[in-house]
Design goal:
With 588 residues, the chain is of the alpha+beta class. 19% of the residues lie in helices and 24% in strands. Strands 17, 18, 19, 20, 21, 22, 24, 25 and 26 form a 9-stranded mixed sheet that branches. Helix 6 runs parallel beside helix 7. The longest helix has 30 residues. The N and C termini lie far apart (51 Å). It is a single-pass membrane protein. Its main location: membrane. One of its GO terms (molecular function) is glycosyltransferase activity. Pfam families: Glyco_transf_92.
Length: 588
């Protein structure tokens, strides 16, 4: 059966699942009761001296019945591990399923949809099945599967099966414990541990952008189970900071008094104090960045790191990483916002060349600012400085300041400063430069004509000196009180921003902007905003003179430097043009 046929809707009959459904519904209350009991028992008696110290690191049922999810149990007879759905989120253009275990790369899945109405035991007769859009790793031990939106009159509480398998193949019975799907406009979606606090990221707070608010308005709630009702909370704590989509709360006192790192895996949500509305639905469990970093406790930090968020830009990632590695960037945090262009393969190739790249799957749409807050907390434990800039932005240092590791040297001049926590660099925006097809040697060589006046800036920051709110406007963060910004002179360094590329590349921006507070270009709002391309409307229609636009100054400085420094003497090829077997991460 070809892929087009597989993607057509088909009905599935599964009478065996009816019995499973009835068994699971009666099993659910027992599961939640045991879960709550163990949670309380652990945190009141699980001190370092206590003989009772259950492990709370795994996901889902592993905490309550660790023997049920062992490899030996489910791989007996050659069968794969089951598909355990722990959460579902209804995003604007697809349904996201979060699995509590890893799946193999390349596995194919089908999404199973049920009618919204009908007897619980009879819905299996009317299931609809469609091939999943994609699957991916998520965090360090989970997976996500992206499904198409449910058809009319079908529930978003979809299930999953391996292509051609049975719905009761271990996965359906467990996901039936939580037959819900949370709406993306109102959900807690990430939580990250930071010392004795947890930073919670949430949609639906409806806070104004670019400012912090009184944290006394919020509370955080902790539990091991889903927040199906108000009395499922085990602990409630006060918020200590709040801004945009971020709320920072204290960990429960019983956890703070023991080992805070054991908070990893606990589910958390947020509520408003002054309203009668319930806490937000939550798919977030506490993530501990110190457990998954590249630096051991006590090991020296990287001096210079970089963080970016991208969608379908694998083609330019090699050039961006290789070039900036030569300038001194040592560690890379790549937040992948639902790419489907083989980004992981590129990251693997770069790592084979010792570029220290981590791809972090970020499935959340219109959440760039929160993603950067998340990245800043990860970088805090590994990096003295971290830069937040895009893969179409390249630092350029004039000849008198140029050299290998020169960008690292520039920023590290401020590492011991008692007051400076942010280094800003201005951007020059480049246009298509007369081209109609993507330049084969990369953007640094291909695009050479720009707008005369600089636009905006990008920053390197000290992640340990950011304000507790982690408030950012993409280009820069709010700093802790007593710290300030310094601006790099244009004669010392600038950023070449290849913003307006050939049309086939540029038009992808019309699909969706990643920033929470920047209007999508196809929306009929803020048409005069600087975040839009001047002269374009809301539709991706190429202007006849596109290739000639945004060209006021011919600037070949970075092109000349790249060709002189990086091109192979025999072939003329640049490192990012060559395969991993022949490329070199260092210039000649």
């Amino acid at each position: 059966m070809d892929s087009d046929q597989r993607r057509k809707w088909k009905r599935v009959n599964n009478s065996g699942g009816k019995i499973a459904l009835k068994l699971i519904l009666s099993f659910r209350s027992l599961t939640l009761g045991i879960t709550s009991f163990l949670f309380i028992l652990f945190y009141f008696y699980g001190s370092d001296r206590s003989p009772f110290r259950p492990v709370l690191r795994a996901s889902g049922f592993t905490r309550v019945f660790p023997n049920l999810l062992t490899d030996d149990y489910f791989r007996g007879g050659g069968k794969p591990l089951p598909l355990v759905i722990e959460s579902r989120v209804l995003l604007p253009d697809h349904l996201l399923l979060v699995l509590s275990n890893r799946v193999q790369r390349g596995e194919s899945f089908e999404c199973v949809y049920y009618p919204q109405l009908g007897d619980a035991a009879d819905v299996l007769d009317e299931m609809l099945v469609k091939l999943a859009i994609s699957a991916d790793d998520y965090q360090e031990s989970k997976s996500i599967v992206r499904c198409e939106l449910p058809p009319v009159n079908f529930s978003a509480a979809a299930d999953l099966r391996r292509t051609g398998g049975e719905v009761v193949e271990g996965n359906w019975m467990r996901s039936a414990v939580n037959q819900t799907a949370d709406d993306w406009g109102k959900v807690v979606y990430e939580a990250i541990l930071d010392s004795n606090t947890v930073v919670v990221l949430a949609k639906g707070l409806n806070l104004k952008p670019h400012r912090d608010v009184n944290p006394a308005e919020f509370r955080c709630h902790f539990s091991l189970s889903h927040f199906n009702k108000q009395d499922s909370f085990i602990f409630t704590t006060e918020a200590t900071a709040a801004a945009q989509e971020v709320v920072r709360c204290l960990l429960p006192r019983s956890i703070r008094n023991n080992n805070t790192e054991l908070a990893e895996g606990i589910r958390v949500t947020v509520s408003r104090v002054a309203t009668a509305s319930p806490a937000l639905p939550s798919v977030a469990k506490v993530y501990n960045p110190k457990s998954h970093g590249m630096r051991e406790e006590g090991e020296a930090k990287y001096e210079l790191c970089a963080c970016t968020m991208l969608w379908n830009q694998a083609a330019v990632l090699k050039e961006w990483v290789m070039y900036h590695s030569w300038l001194g960037v040592e560690r890379w945090f790549i937040y992948d916002n639902n790419s489907d262009d083989g980004l992981q393969d590129v990251a693997d190739e770069l790592n084979s060349l010792n570029h220290n790249v981590t791809r972090h799957v970020w499935p959340w749409v219109k959440a760039q600012e929160a993603g950067f807050s998340h990245c800043a907390l990860r970088a805090k434990y590994e990096c003295n400085w971290v830069g937040f800039f895009d893969v179409d932005e390249f630092f350029y240092l004039p000849r008198q300041h140029r050299g290998q590791n020169s960008l690292r040297a520039l920023v590290s001049n401020y590492t011991d400063s008692p007051t400076i926590a942010e280094v800003r660099t201005m951007c020059h925006s480049f246009g298509p430069s007369g081209l109609t097809a993507p330049p084969k040697q990369g953007v640094t060589v291909g695009y050479t004509c720009r707008v005369q006046a600089p636009e905006r800036h990008k920053s390197f920051v000290r992640p340990d000196l950011l304000d507790v709110t982690l408030l950012n406007i993409v280009h820069h963060f709010k700093l802790r009180e007593g710290y300030r910004t310094t601006n790099v002179a244009e004669t010392t360094a600038v950023i070449n921003h290849y913003k307006y590329q050939v049309w086939d590349t540029f038009k992808a921006k019309f699909f969706r902007r990643v920033s929470t507070y920047v209007t999508n270009w196809q929306d009929d709002q803020n048409k005069g905003s600087k975040d839009r391309a001047p002269g374009l409307g809301t539709e991706a229609v190429e202007p006849p003179d596109w290739r000639l636009r945004f060209c006021e100054v011919w600037d070949t400085g970075l092109k000349d430097f790249v060709l002189d420094t990086f091109a192979d003497g025999a072939t003329g090829l640049l490192p990012w043009e060559r395969s991993s077997s022949s490329a070199s991460s260092s210039a000649r």
